[in-house]
Amino acid sequence: MITASMIIELVIVSLALYVGSRYGSLALGAISGIGLAILVFGFGMKPGSPPTDVIYIIIAAVTCAGVLQASGGMDWLIQIAERLLRRHPDRITFLAPLCTFTLTVLVGTGHVVYTLMPIIVDIAIKKGIRPERPCGVASIASQVGITCSPIAAAVVVFVTISNANGFDVTIPQVLMVTIPACLIGLLCAAAASYHRGLDLDKDPDFQKRLQDPAQREYIYGGSATTLDKKISKESRRAVYIFFGALAVIVMFAVFQNLLPTYDSVKAVDGAKDITLAAGATLSPKDLAAANVVMPGVTEATTVKLKMNLVIQIVMISAAALMIMFCKASPKKAVGGAVWQSGMVAVVAIYGIAWLADTYFSNYLEEMKTMLAGIVAQYNWSIAIVFFLVSVLINSQGAVVVAMLPLAYKLGIPGPVLLGVLPSVYGYFFIPNYPSDIATVNFDRTGTTVIGKYLLNHSFMMPGLISVFVSTIVAYIISSIIY
What we know:
It contains 22 helices and 4 strands. By secondary structure, it is mostly helical. The protein has a two-stranded antiparallel ribbon. Strands 2-3 form a two-stranded antiparallel sheet. Helices cover about 65% and strands about 5% of the residues. The longest helix is centred in the last third of the chain and has 26 residues, at about 335-360. The radius of gyration is 24 Å and the shape is globular.
């Protein structure tokens, strides 16, 4: 039953997310902390669990990617992409999103787009192509790639939470669904963008700007390229190390029998708390954490090393190797855009996921009552919930952490949730994400826009097509596989 306090607290959660999104950057996670404080201290709600596992994965992956950037290895990857784009400038509307998508899949973060986007604009202008066409879908593609990356938090957390809820899926199995689905979605978005808007020579607003000599010089006088950068052998070596780390992670994910095993203690299902002679009460989980075996309460078992720990160990080790053997400066890594953006994501996920878990864990039974009937009849409808939550939360990893446990508790099967995984990307809807804003600023022609009415922006159409098609295709693939 819905109560007044439940509604008021939901309003507080929504306000915290909305205000945080308006300020952006670190504010999204920090202002979520204010909402959490109000719920805990003002309404007496039991605090949920902060998403520590997710945070550790992001820190390890972002540190490795940041060191790769500091080594100059990222420049080499960008050069390879630029050569492809300049070789086929007439196909840039299709090739640009494929390049940004691939870079995100490899590196695990969409923030690598900042280096490539000026090049996309430059090629489009020199070819006479309206930059909005490749830029809009390329910015979308840079974020779509997150659910297709073996080191992205959204994928790893999906696997971890799914395994804990009885759906034994691996990272490669997730990618077998998301990669083809998202590629099809992006190709559909690129096709819809191919003739989008007026050509530059027929656009009256653009032609009017060209009448100003200063504007003409600004638009056509500049040039962006990375091809003049000399790539050192150390930079190339860093890329090899990074790819080697990815290969090791995928290998362990596929051949999990290679993972080391350890003796451990786990709580017996249905075991109750015990009270000691001194009056203290211990839960089965407390005893298991202390490695205490007590018949009927805890039992000895053998466990494999978890994949989230494998990713952390391999990524942080790869970062160390790049520092030692590739002349990657730690100070430069910390000052780079990849590392800084990743740390912003850590704070955002920390605050958002903790706030959401606090609210939903306190109202789990009410949520089951309200949503069970709908999702039981239409399992796919959880995709709408994921998308709407993502509109407010600028992090796919945070959406998975906050909403996936609730989805499993509502009884939605794992294969269905895998099928709707692409729907966790909805933060293009309100164009306040850094990559979208940067793309608008990079387009010297002014054709890539936010829009007078906020929602009529250059990313809406390719974003909706991509997510809609990707989710449908992923749902079909998952249904066939499982």
